[in-house]
Amino acid sequence: MNKDKVICPCKKVTKGDILVAMKKGALTYKDVKKATGAGSKCGHCKDDVKNFIKKHKDDI
């Protein structure tokens, strides 16, 4: 996985940013949105963020 890949272009949030937020306890879309801003502007990346969280939740 490329941690530098942008998952939310509006807020420039990367996969690595989401992983850091998850390690700090943000394990839901709402938590990740609050911690990183991902999905808080246009919402186009919402499904991508949710899928990423679901896929990597067990890795934390």
Describe the protein's architecture and organization.
- The protein is mainly alpha-helical and 60 residues long.
- The chain has a single domain (6-59), classed as BFD-like [2Fe-2S]-binding domain (Arc Repressor Mutant, subunit A).
- It has three helices and two strands, in the order E-E-H-H-H.
- It has helices at residues 15-23, 29-36, 46-56, and strands at 6-8, 13-14.
- It has a two-stranded antiparallel sheet with strand order 1-2.
- Helix 1 crosses helix 2 and helix 1 (15-23) crosses helix 3 (46-56).
- The protein is globular, with a radius of gyration of 10 Å.
- The two termini are 15 Å apart.
- The model has no long low-confidence stretch (mean pLDDT 96).
Structure keywords:
Arc Repressor Mutant, subunit A; two-stranded antiparallel sheet; 2 strands; globular
Work out the helicity level.
Answer: 40-55%
Integer-rounded radius of gyration? 10 Å
What best-fitting shape do the alpha-carbon axes yield?
globular
Sheet with most strands: strand arrangement: 1-2
CATH topology: Arc Repressor Mutant, subunit A
The H-level CATH homologous superfamily, spelled out, is BFD-like [2Fe-2S]-binding domain
Quickly name the level 1 CATH class. Mainly Alpha
**Tally of structural domains:** 1
Q: Beta-strand level of the residues, as a percent range? A: 5-15%
